[in-house]
Structure formats: structure tokens, C-alpha cells
Amino acid sequence: MRKKVIFITGASGEVGHALIRHLAEDGGNELLTMDLRPLPEDIHPFVLEHVVGNLLDHILLARIVTQYEIDAIYHLAALLSTSSEFTPDIAHQVNVEGTLGLLRLAAEQSQWRNRPIQFIFPSSIAVYGMPQIAQSKGLYQRVREWEWNQPRTMYGCNKLYCEMLGNYFGHHYRQLAVERPVMLDFRAVRFPGLISAFTVPTGGTSDYAPEMLHAAAQGKPYACFVRESTRIPFMAMPDAAHALLQLAHAPQESLTKSVYNVRAFSLTAGEIRERVLAAFPQARITFEVDEKRQAIVDSWPADLDDSSAQQDWGWQARYEVNRSFEEYLIPNISRRYAG
Ligand code: SER
């Protein structure tokens, strides 16, 4: 008998680190994880098997399917926005072809099992592209899902297209076939910039917020690569894991969309600096603007409208800005580097 599992790609990354704990706490979930890297030791005990391998390796995926019955997929593996600009072809392969391969796998499994396999997909604020900061970003503060979908990064294009592919596989796949196959159950959230107390991101463009905090806690100077006035939404990592799980648990009939914005708080880089300085008064934080990365962040909205997520599946961030800093970020980051 094949064992029933939840399959998590990109499991060794930041979101994986938080999600695996949450899924384990949720109870009754056997987790099969995959990443190019080994799994961090502290989350190993929560996982049945970790596969070190490449998402684009079809033979490896086929082996996984022969061994396990996949009940749900959390597809976290991706190259983030700054990294993707350096290697756009590779970004496209990983972010789009990797996702397409997994969607196919989930579609096949849905047919074999005669029930929809759930496919949970973290998308991003990077799907938005707002032209010229003063006219659009200033005027349209809380952007809704269908507005400004003109990304200026490869990563944003990849995420937007994969949302569409997911919706296609969830509703219209093989629409001309004599018998309609069972569709997979695709659900996505668009995350703002994420900040974890336990991990530091690599290759993103919202990374200045977590980098500032982690540098301050270690007594290292930090030069922020965007202007003080730059505003985008952020979310503490426990809320990100919670959003994925809450969306996965929502009854399908209550969902009116396949892609939902989620938000927690919106801060300027200067406001983040103030909060970091309040906790670490010795911190040396300066601003050395990288105009190219600045332009990317300027194309992202100042905040997101998440009213659909609130209405359809009861989304509400548990960590608003004060709780994020005072209860989650500052104490955990301080402890992390104290020893
Ligand atoms: N944090 C991501 C990045 O900066 C945005 O979703 O690429």
C-alpha cells in the first residue's frame, strides 16, 4: 500500500520551515518534503521522508508517485525576484516549468483517485506592477486581485502565469474531452514581503526588512538598499503559514476565487528602521539606494486589499504590526543571536 502524504516542495526554504511545523501541529499529516538542499535539522523530526532533488527531474517525481499517494501539494519551491533577474531562463524553468510539471502530476492523481488533489500555491505581491510611483502607487493604496497585473520582474511574470495555469487546471483542463476529468483543487495566496525570526531570505527584493532586523540583532551595520519612504506590505512568518493552512481547510463551496490577497501590515523602510532602533538602540542602519532594486519595489503596491480572503475563508492576520515586532520578531531574533 502506498502511504498517503502531503507533498511539500521547496521545503528547506523560509516558508517551508514555518509551514512544516504548522502542518505537524495540525495533526495527522504525514509529510513528504523535497528541496535541492537537505532539510534543516530542527524540522527533520516532523517529516516522514525528505527527498534531496530537483523539481524538474521527472523520473524522480515518477518514483515519488509510485511510492506515495499524494493527498495535497504545497508547492513552495521558487527563485525569488532579485535572483530571477540575474538568471531569467533558469527562473522560468524552475518557477514555470517546475509548477507545470507538478500541476500535471496533481491532475493525473486527481483522475486516478477520482477526487480532487489539493494544490496550494504561494504567489506574491510581485505579480503587481504599478507604473511611476507618484501617479499609481500613491493614488491606489490597497490593490485588489485583478488590478495592476503587469509585473516588471521575471518572478512576478512567472507567479502570475502560474496562478493562471493553476486556475486552468482547476476548472478547464481537457475541456473538450468527451468525459470531463476530475479537476484538481488549486488555491493560491499572494503574500506580501515575509519576515521570519528564524530564517533570513535569499534572493528577494523585500529582503531589506528581515536583513535590517537580523543585522541589528547581531550588532552588524546594515545599508538598506531602498529609500526610507519606500512602503510595501509585510507579514510575520507564522501568519504566512497560517494563511496557507486556513485556505487549505476552507470548504471549496465558500471560495469565489482561486487566488487571494492576504495582508498584515504596511510599513515604510524608515518605519521599520525606527522599530528596529527601538529594540536595538546601538544598531547602525543607513540607506544606500540601489536604484534598480528600488524600481522593483516601487512597482509593488503600498498595500493589498484582502477583503475577499476575509469574506470567503475568514482570513485575519493574527500578528498585526505591534504584535509582530514585540511578541514574535524582537524576542525570537534576540534569543537567536544571544547565545
Ligand atoms: N519576497 C519576495 C521577493 O522579494 C516577493 O514575494 O522576491
Describe the structure concisely.
By secondary structure, the chain is of the alpha/beta class.
What would you say this structure looks like, in words?
By secondary structure, the chain is α/β, with parallel strands linked by helices. The protein has a single domain (78-337), classed as Rossmann fold (3-Layer(aba) Sandwich), CATH 3.40.50.720. It is built from twelve helices and 14 strands. The strands form four sheets. Strands 3-2-1-4-5-7-11 form a seven-stranded parallel sheet, with helices on both faces. The relative contact order is 0.14. The mean pLDDT is 96. Bound molecules: serine.
Question: Keywords, please?
Answer:
339 residues; alpha/beta; Rossmann fold; 7-stranded parallel beta sheet; 12 helices; 43% helix; binds serine
Strand order, largest beta sheet: 3-2-1-4-5-7-11
The DSSP helix count reads 12
Question: Using DSSP, what is the number of strands?
Answer: 14
Provide the gyration radius in Å.
20 Å
User: Any idea what the shape is?
Assistant: globular
* Secondary-structure element series: EHEEHEHHEHEHEEHEEHEEHEHEHH
Largest sheet: 7 strands, parallel
User: pLDDT average, as an integer?
Assistant: 96
How much of the sequence lies in strands comes to 15-25%
> Helicity level, as a percent range?
40-55%
Kindly identify the CATH topology: Rossmann fold
User: In CATH, what is the class?
Assistant: Alpha Beta
Measured distance between first and last alpha carbons: 46 Å
The secondary structure category is: alpha/beta
Count of separate structural domains? 1
Specify the CATH architecture. 3-Layer(aba) Sandwich
